[in-house]
Amino acid sequence: MEKNAEVPFQQSFENGRSSREVRKEPRKLSNFEIARYSRQLILPELGVKGQQLLSSCKVLIVGAGGLGCPAAVYLAAAGIGTLGVLDYDDVEMSNLHRQILHTEQRVGMAKAHSVATSCRNLNSSIRLIPIREQLKSENALSVIKEYDIILDATDNVATRYLLNDACVLAGKPLVSGSALRFEGQLTVYNYRGGPCYRCLYPKPPPPETVTNCSDGGVLGVVPGIIGCYQALEAIKIAADMGTTLNQRLLLFDALDCSTRIIKLRPRQASCAVCGDAPSIRHLIDYEQFCGARATDKVPRTKTVNVIYTVCLFFLKQEYHELLMNTVPHVLIDVRMPVELNICCLPHPAQTDNPSMLWIFLDQMQYVPMDLLQKDPKGTVQQIKCYAGELKHDPLSVIIVCRRGNDSQLAVNLLLEVDPDLNVKDIRGGLHAWARDVDLDFPVY
C-alpha cells in the first residue's frame, strides 16, 4: 500500500518562517492503520488528523549509525509515510554496540540497506528508500528537496554545514543531534523563524579540536537516547503538535542522568546563509571550508615535517627486527591510559630484550599525548637521562599510538625541543601492526 499518493500539505519557508497550506482532504485511515496505530490515535494531541499528517510526511535521515538507527525505527513504528535513509558506509563489527538495527549477519552490508531492512520488517506498510551514497554539494539539494523533514545523524563537521546550508536553501527544517562519550545534544534548525547552524557557528572549529566517536568513544545508549529524541522532534513537526526544540538546545549527561534545555540566540540577520542579505546562495566545498573530510573515518594524517619523513618506520623491515634484537631504544606509547588496558606491543620480557624501556604510567615514563603536549622538554630530559644510564647516545626513540596520527605530532614536539633527537614513529600505529606484523593483535 503506497502511502504517498496524496500529500495533504506543503511546507514553505520564507525568511525562516514556515507555513502549511492544505491542498486537499487527507486520505482516510484504513482499518489496518487504525488497529496498528490505535495507541497513539487515542492521544488528543495527535488523533486521526495527526496520524494522517504522519502518513503523508517524508523524512530523510542522513546517517545510519548510532543516531540514525533509533530515529529510523521509531519513525517507522509511528507510521511516517516515507522514510529515506542515506549513508555511504558499510556495517562493521565495531558499530554494533550502538547501531542497534544492524546485526552480526549484516557485517559488510550497506548501512542504508541494513536499516531499511530492519524498518521494513517492523512496518511493511511505509515506503522505505535506502540511499547508499555520500552526501555532497553536488547531490544534496536534489536529495533533500524530495523530503519534508531532515534529520542530521552524522558525525563530522563538514556534513553538518552542508546539511544546514542545503536545508536553508531548500526550506526544510533540520533536526540535528550529536553524541560523544557520555553526552548528547539536540536542537532544531531553520524552523519557524529560528536560527540555522551558521547563526550559532559562523566559522567551523579548528580540525584538531574536533573529536568523533571513533577517537573519543561513546557509550552506546547515549546516541540511542539522542536518536529517539530526534524521532520525537520529527514526529512533533510532522504532526504539528507540542513544542519543538526550535531555538533551544537540549543537553544530556548520561553519567548523572541529567537533562538541561538552554535558550539559543535567535536567527542572525547577518547570517551568511539565512540572513537578510545572504552571501551563500549555492552549496560550497565544505571539506575546504572546514579543513576536514566529510566522513567519520579517521585517515592517516601527514603532520611530520617533510625533512623527517625518511625516518618513519616500515613495520616489518625495521621495528619488528629491532624488537627482536638487543639495540637499546625507548618506546613511547602516547595513547590514553585506558587504552593500555586494551592492548600493548610486546613487553621486553616477552622479547628477551631487557635493554628496551617499556613505558609505564606509574613510573612517569609512559607519556599520554596530552601530557607530552604540556611538557615536551620534560620528556626529552627523561630520554636523555635514560640514554646516559645505558651509555648509548644518541638513543633511538620510537613513538607509537593507535593509528599513527598522534605519534607524528609527538615526533614534531620532541624535535622542536631537540632537533638532533633520533626519534621516529611507527607508521600506521597499532592498526598497522595488527595488519602487517601480528594478525592476532587486537584492533579497536
SSE layout:
Layout: E1 9-14, E2 17-22, H1 31-36, H2 38-41, H3 47-55, E3 58-62, H4 68-78, E4 82-86, H5 111-122, E5 127-131, H6 140-144, E6 149-152, H7 157-170, E7 174-180, E8 183-189, H8 197-200, H9 213-216, H10 221-239, E9 248-253, E10 258-263, H11 286-290, H12 315-324, E11 329-333, H13 337-340, H14 348-351, H15 369-374, H16 376-390, E12 396-400, H17 406-417, E13 423-425, H18 429-436
Any overview of this molecule?
The structure is a single chain. By secondary structure, the chain is of the alpha/beta class. The chain folds into 2 domains: 31-290, NAD(P)-binding Rossmann-like Domain (Rossmann fold), CATH 3.40.50; 309-437, Oxidized Rhodanese, domain 1, CATH 3.40.250. The chain has 18 helices and 13 strands. The chain has helices at 31-36, 38-41, 47-55, 68-78, 111-122, 140-144, 157-170, 197-200, 213-216, 221-239, 286-290, 315-324, 337-340, 348-351, 369-374, 376-390, 406-417, 429-436, and strands at 9-14, 17-22, 58-62, 82-86, 127-131, 149-152, 174-180, 183-189, 248-253, 258-263, 329-333, 396-400, 423-425. The strands form 3 sheets. The chain has an 8-stranded mixed β-sheet with strand order 5-4-3-6-7-8-9-10, sandwiched between helices. The two termini are 44 Å apart.
